[in-house]
Write a structure and sequence with these properties.
9-stranded mixed β-sheet; about 1050 residues; Calcium-transporting ATPase, transmembrane domain; 4 domains; about 15% strand; 8-stranded mixed β-sheet; about 50% helix; ATP-binding; metal-binding; Calcium-transporting ATPase, cytoplasmic transduction domain A; Rossmann fold; P_typ_ATPase; alpha/beta
Length: about 1050
Amino acid sequence: MSGGQGQFNNSPRGEDKDVEAGTSSFTEYEESPFDITSTKNAPVERLRRWRQAALVLNASRRFRYTLDLKREEDKKRMLRKMRAHAQAIRAAHLFKAAASRVNGIITSSPPSPGGGDFGIGQEQIVSISRDQNIGALQELGGVKGLSGLLKTNLEKGIHGDDDDISKRKSAFGSNTYPQKKGRSFWRFVWEASQDLTLIILIVAAAASLALGIKTEGIEKGWYDGISIAFAVLLVIVVTATSDYRQSLQFQNLNEEKRNIRLEVTRDGRRVEISIYDIVVPADGVLVAGHSLAVDESSMTGESKIVHKNSTKNPFLMSGCKVADGHGTMLVTGVGVNTEWGLLMASVSEDNGGETPLQVRLNGVATFIGIVGLTVAGVVLFVLVVRYFTGHTKGANGAPQFVGGHTKFDHVLDDLVKIITVAVTIVVVAVPEGLPLAVTLTLAYSMRKMMADKALVRRLSACETMGSATTICSDKTGTLTLNEMTVVECYTGFQKMDPPDSSSKLPPPFTSILVEGIAHNTTGSVFRSESGEVQVSGSPTERAILNWAIKLGMDFDALRSESSAVHFFPFNSEQKRGGVAVKSPDSTVHVHWKGAAEIVLGSCTHYMDENESPVDMSGDKMAELKNAINDMAARSLRCVAIAFRNFEADKIPTDEDQLSRWVLPEDELVLLAIVGIKDPCRPGVKNSVLLCQKAGVKVRMVTGDNIQTAKAIALECGILASDSDASEPNLIEGKVFRAYSEAERDRICEEISVMGRSSPNDKLLLVQSLKRKGHVVAVTGDGTNDAPALHEADIGLSMGIQGTEVAKEKSDIIILDDNFESVVKVVRWGRSVYANIQKFIQFQLTVNVAALVINVVAAISSGDVPLTAVQLLWVNLIMDTLGALALATEPPTDHLMDRDPVGRREPLITNIMWRNLFVQAMYQVTVLLVLNFRGISILNLDHKPNAERVKNTVIFNAFVICQIFNEFNARKPDEFNIFQGVLRNHLFVGIICITIVLQVVIVEFLGTFASTIKLDWEMWLICIGIGSISWPLAVIGKCIPVPETPVSQYFRINRWRRNSSG
C-alpha cells in the first residue's frame, strides 16, 4: 500500500498561563462561555455553551462555518451502525468457519460468472470484500485467481493505458462518492434574509408603504416604504454575494484536501497518481506484506491494531490506516462500493468547526449587541414619549401629535417610522458580520497559503499559528533538502575512496552486501521506456540503492534469485530494519540496516578483505565509532549494514508463527558504514533567525545521531556556537525520556536540539512545553508522529514524505516539506489576527459614532439625523464591504517584528482603544455640532430645504469619515498608512466602489435615501471633515498607552471583589 536561540522566561507569557496548560491567576476566565483558547478536541458541551450564550440575529448565517453539532452526532451514529455491521459480519463468518470445521463442509457460495471484459462482476467482488468472505475468495483461487479474473498482474499491475482505465471505470466505477452539491446563490440570499432585524424592517416597510399610500396618495406615499425595502434588498444581495464567493473558496480548498496522492504499480512501474485516478480503489485484499498492521478503529470502533496476512486475514478496508509494516494490495472496490465510500456518501464533509477567534468575536458581538439593543430601546422610548407629549415637531414646526385631533392612520405611520429608526439602530449596533470576518480572512488566507505551499486542514490552526511560541521541527527534508547521496563508506577493513569503487571490494563481499541492500528496502529499481535506470523510495533508500547500483547491483535478478522469508520494517523506535533472505541453496541470511551506532552495537564480527568474519576487537569498535562521530560531525547521516547466517530449519513454517517470529539481531557481522550527505536548505538559516526575532524558538527534534543533529543545528542557526552544544541545550532522546515529568518540565524550555529521539520523546517534549504555557507547533512525517501531531496546538505534516496517518492527524500540510513554508504559515497566522483587529477597530468606530450621534439627537431634539436607509448603507460599508477590504490585507514583514499573539491577550488592545476613541470622539463632536448648529455654520439660514441639506451633509460627512478612517485602520500602530495600499487591489476597489455609490446615493437617489443634491462647496466641506481624520490619527499615535490592557484592570477589580466576598 501500495528534528538561533531565543531567551524565554519560565512561561512565554509571564505569569498569564493558559487554563488548559497550567493554572491561571483569575478564575473568571472559566466563567465566560466565550473563553475557549483552543477548539481542537474541545468537548461538544463546551461548544454548545457558547452558542447558547451568543446574541444572534441570524443563526443560519452566524453559525454557518462552525461545527454542525447535530451533523456530528449523525455521523457518529452512522459510524456506530457500520461498526456494528462489520462486527456482525465478522461474528457470522467465525460461526460459519467453526461449523465448516465440525461438519467438514464448505459453506461459501459458488462464484457467479462475471460480465463484460472481466471474469468477475462488480456485485460479486464487492460482496466478497464487504463480507470479508475468505471461503469465496479461496474458491476463486485466492488472490492469484482473483487477480487473473481482474486481468491484473500481481507484479506489474494493470496496463494503465487510457483504453484499459476506461474499461475498468465502466466495469467497476470510479473512486468518487456522491457529494452534496454546494449551496446555490439563492440559498445564500435566503439565509441572508433570515436576519431578525431585516425581517422587522421589511414588515415596517410594508406597513409604511400601505399607510403612506393611504395618507399621502400613490404618487408620494410609496417613497418611504419602497426606500427601506430597496435598502434591505441591497443589504441582502451584497451579503449573499460575499458569502457565496466565500463558500466557493471553501469548496475548492476541500477538494484539495481530499485529493490524496499515492503510489501504485502500473505496467511494472511504481507511479504516483491522484486518489481519484484509482480504477479499483481502497477496499482490497493483501497480495504480499511484511509485518503489516492496520488500524481499523475508524470502521470497527476497536482500538487494537489488526495484523494482516495474505491467507487468513487478507481483507483491507478503505478509511483504515497502516500502523506498521508494508505490503501490496489488490484493490477490489471503488467509491460507493467500499465501506468508507458508503459512509462518506451518507455524511457530507464539514467545514472544520469554529476557531477560538470566532468564539471570542461572538462574545464581543454579543456584548456590543446588548449595548446596541439597550441604546435602541432608550431611543424608541424617548421618541415615543416625545411624540405623544407633543414635543416632536413636523416640517412646518407644528407638533406631529395633538391629542384628539391627529388621525389614527397618521399616528400609526409616525410610530412605524419611529420603530423603523430604532430597529435600524439595532442593525448597525449588533455587529452580525464580526464573527464572520474571521472566516472571510481565513478563506482568503487559506487560498493564498496554498501558493505558499501550505494546505490548511483545520480552520483554527491558521490563526493558532500566529500564537505559536515554539516550533519543534524535524531535520530531514524540513531543515535539509532531502536530496541524499552516499559520499563516504567504511568497511571493516578499509575506508573506500571513492565510496562507490566496486574494484576495491572482493566479489563475494559485494555479492552479500548488495543482496542485503536489494531485499532490505522499501524502495525499488526499474528501467524507464528509454532504458534509463530509475529508483523509487524514501530519500535514504534511494541514496543507498543508487550507491549499490554503482557497486554492480542487479536489483531484479537478486530479488528473483532469492526470496524474503520474513521482514522487520524500519521504524523510528528501533532505528533499524531487517529481513531474512533464503537463497536457492537454502542458505539463510538475516540482513540488518539502520542507525550506525545502534547496528554497530549488535555486531560481534566484521567482514575482512578475505571475506572472512573477524572478531570485533575493542580497538576496531573504537575505530569505527570514531569514524561514525567524524562523519556525524560533518552533518552526514550514518547508516550501518550488517548480516548474519541463520539455520533454515529454525525458521517457523506456520504462517501465524512466522508472522510473530522475531528476527535475530545479535552476533551480527558488519559489512559497511555509509555516510549520506543531505545539505541544508539554502534559506533555512534566515528563516530560523526570522523566527527568533519574532519570539518563536525553533527546536530540532530528529532521530539522527546527536553529532549529526548538532552539525546541522549549527549550520541552520538553531545553535549559535559550539559553546551552546551542551546538555540540556543539546540532549539525546533517551536521556530526556529517563527524566521524571517534573524534571522534563524544568529543562524543556532550554532544549534546542534533541537527537536520537523517538516519536514518544517528541510527544513528551510537546506535553512539557504545553504545561509551561507554550503554544507548540510540531512537524512530523511518520505514522508514529501522529500522537505528537495530535497533542500539539498545531500539527504540521509533510506533504511529500508524510504518511497518510500523519497527514490525517495534522492541522496543516506543508506541501514542499520546507521549513521556510512553516515560517510563512506563522506570518499568515499573525496576519489573520492583525486583520481581524483592523476590522474590529474600524467597525467599533462606526458603531460608537453612529450610536452616540443618534442617541444624543433623539433625546435632545426628538429626531435623528441618520435615517433608516442611510443607516443600512452605513451598515453595509461597515459590515460586508469593510470586512472584505480589511480582512484581506496580505501579511507584511512588520508582523514578524513583534512577539507571538497571546491566546488570552485582549482582542481590543490599548492601541486600538486609543485610535477608536480619537476617531469616534472627533466624528461625534463634528457631526453633533453640525446637527445642532449646522444651518448657521453652513450659511443655510435663508436657503430652501436648509434642514435636508444639513442632514445630507451630516450623512455624507459621516460616510466620508469612514472611508478615510478605513485607511487608518490598515495600520493601527504605524504612521505610514499608505504603505502597500496599491498592492491590495481589493481594498482599493472597495474604496472606489464605496465612493461611487455614495455619490450616486447623494446626487441621484435623494427620494429614496432622504438626501438632497449638494453643490461642490458642500462636497469640499464633507471631504475636508473626513480628511482631518488622517492627521488626527498621526497625532493620536503619538499618545502613549499603558502596557497593561484596559480589560485587565476590570479583571483585577472583579477578582478582588470575588476574593473579598
